[in-house]
Specification:
single chain; 232 residues; mainly alpha; f41 fragment of flagellin, N-terminal domain; rod-shaped
Amino acid sequence: MNVNSLGTSNFNLNIGQNKSSTDGVLEKLAAMHAITNESPADLIIYNQQQSDMLVASQKVQNANESYSMLRVSDNALQSLKESAMELNTQSVARNSAALNSDQKAMIDADSNALLRSMKDTVEQTTYNGQQLLGDIKIDTIDASNQESVQNFMSMLDRRLGDVGAAMNATVSEINQQSSLVTNLAYSKETKEYDVADLVNQLRSGETKLNASLFAQAHSSESLAQRVGTLLK
């Protein structure tokens, strides 16, 4: 005899669903222990993650500032290099035996104009009020001496190489610290549930589960009475 099997299945289904929902809330509450006083060790880890994320964020900001400063230096050095190359061309031309004094004077005037422009570049290359190329002395260049100009160009090449290497290292630092911030933020997010909301969900789930169990018990008792009546 199969008495009220459909009703029993429905009760079992409701119980299963309510139990599953309650178990899910309990899992979230279990994960929440990392930011409560229930587990001091995990709380220390969580706080350390928070601190690490703030430190990494600051490092990203510092690296961005450094990169901007290096970029300003690089642009200025590139400008100086272009002017120095033109100065070198003028120096070669000036040393030609075919030129007369007036022609040499014209070249000297152009070279002096270039030197003034280069000096302005050095003096005006600043970042947050800090002069970046103050150690470069334009006045030491002898525009009429090709070796002097070429030595200056070699110095610029070394300086550009150093700045380029520093920029690459800074970009690597930015990428590394940005990745760390992202990972730490994700780790924190997986732990940060709304405790009050979870507790309310848990209580609601427990109420529904208890109601289902009570309904099942009541149904079983009624079923037993009905079966007993039928068997009399």
